[in-house]
Design goal:
Pfam families: BPL_C, BPL_LplA_LipB. The chain has 5 helices and 12 strands. It is α+β, with helices and mostly antiparallel strands. Strand 10 and strand 11 form a beta hairpin. The longest helix has 21 residues.
Length: 273
């Protein structure tokens, strides 16, 4: 990963980011940026600070699941954001923004990809998992969030346990991407995310006002599906996914015909996308 090239292309004042660092290895880029957000000596990492690792030894996905991050095989990055224009409640829609940026990049690379609510990117005809997003709000008085993205670029040499619903893993290379140059892909991803995130921020986190909701609905393979929602407490809610609202929540039509809004949970698609 060429840190100098990324900085030249993306750092302020000409680019959108305040800082970009690339490290050879770390436990978790999300954990590192959470720690850098407010340190004991009073230092605070700036809004739109980026950390990229060539390898993560303790990468984490949703619900504390392992995210396999072998050296040189993917893009593992986190962005620290301090969107003062967005309320704490509005931060929940940020994963939608990141998902759209990932779909933008996949399209640029010639890869067929769709979104699985709330935070997965599925690629190829078999709709295997290619990327995931983890958004974590900061525990501080100031509004802040660390957004992590894991994107498989090259095939993983180790066996990866299937995700919820038995989703296998895949990579951009396996789906015929026009390039597997990780510096170029990281540049494309950070550029796409900055464009989407600036619109989201200006709209106060409202996806519809930002002009992002229609895009998400178009790319979301969960909509129209029979699904089973595994809730954070381990319960299961069956139904049909009928919509995503302006805050990024999934709207479910239950077997009894009622509508229920789902803020968080693992989605299992019950029929092929």
């Amino acid at each position: 990963m060429d840190e100098a090239a990324l900085r030249a292309a993306l750092l302020q004042p000409d680019g959108p980011y305040a800082a970009i660092d690339v490290v050879p290895s770390t436990g978790s880029t999300n954990a590192d940026l959470r720690a850098a957000a407010t340190t004991d000596d009073g230092f605070q990492a700036e809004d739109r600070t980026v950390l990229i690792a060539d390898e993560q030894t303790a990468g984490v996905g949703r619900r504390a699941r392992d995210w396999r991050s072998p050296k040189g095989a993917g893009i593992y990055l986190s962005v620290l954001l301090r969107p003062r224009e967005v309320s704490f409640a509005g931060l929940g829609s940020l994963a939608v923004v990141a998902g759209l940026a990932l779909v933008d990049v996949a399209a640029d690379l010639g890869v067929d990809a769709v979104l699985k609510w709330p935070n997965d990117v599925l690629a190829g005809p078999d709709r295997a998992k290619c990327a995931g997003v983890l958004s974590e709000a900061l525990s501080s008085d100031e509004i802040g969030v660390v957004l992590g993205i894991g994107l498989n670029v090259l095939p993983l040499k180790e066996k990866v346990p299937p995700g919820p619903g038995g989703l296998p893993a895949t990579s951009l290379a396996e789906q015929g991407a026009r390039t597997t140059d990780r510096t170029e892909i990281a540049r494309l991803l950070l550029t796409a995310f900055a464009d989407r995130e600036s619109r989201w921020r200006a709209a106060g986190g409202d996806l519809e006002r930002a002009g992002l909701l229609a895009d998400y609905r178009r790319h979301c393979a969960t909509l129209g599906q029979g699904v089973n929602i595994i809730t954070p407490d381990g319960g299961a809610v069956p139904g049909e996914a009928v919509d995503v609202d302006s805050s990024g929540q999934l709207v479910l039509k239950t077997p009894g015909g009622q509508r229920r809004t789902i803020f968080a949970g693992d989605v299992v698609h019950l029929r092929p996308s």
